[in-house]
């Protein structure tokens, strides 16, 4: 590889790929990423580091006479652009006609984004300096935990990813996406007790290690008394992190085609989908918005491979704000343009953030605990797996703290459980929601960090069996 090719910018690679294309249409995008991290264990910082990476994707569209076909090839680093374009064109020639074929988005199309970003600017970056206030605060937290004979483990990560997307129709789009998270685990010396706190962030300016450590300390104090409970249905307080993991799964499965063809929980008995049907007992709203303060995400689609939720032909399509559920009523499903055309329904794109809220809700976590006569308070869920797509029945385990609430107070920690629940069914049964706050999904935060959720009270959460996990 020549020194000149190594020095190519993301924009230059996109332009070179489009210029080299001999296909009937092409999309090229580059994602330049810069990452930094801190890790700690047993009350001591262990590692820190920074890295950079690049992904280059070329999608070629070729009409072989029977219909338009698409071929995608991706590389990391700075590849030979001509070879990459040739490989994607061969992939398109080898593929059959695409059932999601549509004309590529062009500038000025009704579905083209109005915000295009600064195409010519250098990619955004991060560095270890983003943790300037985190490291000293951790030192203080380590000392305090050690004084209680407790241990802290965890990590902080920050990424800046710049996407440059170009198409043969003339679109040139750029987006900078900051993504950060902190996870803090508290453990007893014998590892018999474990609790968790975490938060998502754009730039760490809003992260309070002191507040996270205080949350961990409080939960460790709660867990000093142990209570064994059997499996069964319990009134349960689901904190925002647990709610986000369940709602993200409900969101990921909101594919209109699967619903229209009777394959998911959003299918209507007798045919069609449940749009317009009330699915929440409370007038909850589930929504996504690329401009949501603190949760900002890309205002256009970047798609490497077609699925029921996205199409490579829709690259560059705007992703405006959308209410998936409004006032408790299912309002929209995820629908690429090709399926939208077949169903004479609006094309609706998925976004990279999710907000669940009950308008006017003001209750705090503390107030919801105080109003609980007897129930369980969870910390997080993990190992979530789908059991039945028709009802969206999920199974998984509780993790890092299940607490017993009696007469408005936490009186101890109980054993972990395996649960069997559908997030859609939970929305129908939840009878109280707190105010919404930014949270960090525990199970899905490798892929999805931008979420804001309330605590939900569910009167009969199904703890299907006792888990031996500690």
TrEMBL record:
InterPro entries: Metalloprtase-TldD/E_C (IPR045569), TldD/PmbA_N (IPR035068), TldD/PmbA_sf (IPR036059). It comes from Klenkia sesuvii. Residues 232-464 form the Metalloprotease TldD/E C-terminal domain. This is Metallopeptidase TldD-related protein. PANTHER family: CONSERVED PROTEIN, TLDD PROTEIN. It comes from the Bacteria. Signal peptide: none annotated.
């Amino acid at each position: 590889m020549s020194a000149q090719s190594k020095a190519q910018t993301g924009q230059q690679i996109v332009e070179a790929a489009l210029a080299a294309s001999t296909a009937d249409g092409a999309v090229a995008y580059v994602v330049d990423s810069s990452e930094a991290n801190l890790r700690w264990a047993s009350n001591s910082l262990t590692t820190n580091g920074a890295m950079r990476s690049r992904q280059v994707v070329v999608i070629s569209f070729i009409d072989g006479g029977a219909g338009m076909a698409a071929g995608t090839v991706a590389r990391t680093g700075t590849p030979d652009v001509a070879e990459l374009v040739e490989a994607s064109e061969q992939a398109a020639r080898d593929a059959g006609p695409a059932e999601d074929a549509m004309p590529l988005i062009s500038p000025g199309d009704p579905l083209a984004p109005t915000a295009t970003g600064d195409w010519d600017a250098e990619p955004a970056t991060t560095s270890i300096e983003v943790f300037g206030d985190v490291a000293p605060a951790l030192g203080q937290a380590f000392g305090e935990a050690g004084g209680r004979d407790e241990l802290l483990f965890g990590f902080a990560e920050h990424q800046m990813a710049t996407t440059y997307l170009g198409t043969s129709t003339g679109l040139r789009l750029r987006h900078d996406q900051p993504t950060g998270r902190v996870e803090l685990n508290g453990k007893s010396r014998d590892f018999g007790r474990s609790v968790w706190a975490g938060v998502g962030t754009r730039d760490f300016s809003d992260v309070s290690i002191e507040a996270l450590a205080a949350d961990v300390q409080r939960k460790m104090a709660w867990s000093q008394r142990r209570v064994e409970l059997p499996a069964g249905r319990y009134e349960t307080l689901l904190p925002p992190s647990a709610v986000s993991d369940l709602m993200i799964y409900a969101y990921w499965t909101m594919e209109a085609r699967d619903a229209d063809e009777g394959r998911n929980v959003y299918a209507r008995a007798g045919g069609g989908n449940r749009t317009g049907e009330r699915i929440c007992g409370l007038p909850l709203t589930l929504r996504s918005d690329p401009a949501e303060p603190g949760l900002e995400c890309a205002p256009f689609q970047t798609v490497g491979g077609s699925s029921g939720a996205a199409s490579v032909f829709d690259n560059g399509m705007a992703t405006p704000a959308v209410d998936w559920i409004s006032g408790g009523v299912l309002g929209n499903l995820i629908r690429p343009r090709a399926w939208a055309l077949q169903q004479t329904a609006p094309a609706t794109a998925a976004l990279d953030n999710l907000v669940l809220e009950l308008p006017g809700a003001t209750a705090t976590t503390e107030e919801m605990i105080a109003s609980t006569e007897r129930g369980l308070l969870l910390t997080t869920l993990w190992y979530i797996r789908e059991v039945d797509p028709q009802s969206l029945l999920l199974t998984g385990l509780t993790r890092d703290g299940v607490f017993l609430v009696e007469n408005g107070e936490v009186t101890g920690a109980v054993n972990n459980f395996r649960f069997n629940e559908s997030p859609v069914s939970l929305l129908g049964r939840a009878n109280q929601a707190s105010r919404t706050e930014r949270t960090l999904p525990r199970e899905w935060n490798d892929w999805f960090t931008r979420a804001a959720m309330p605590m939900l009270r569910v009167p009969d959460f199904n703890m299907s069996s006792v888990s031996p996990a500690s």
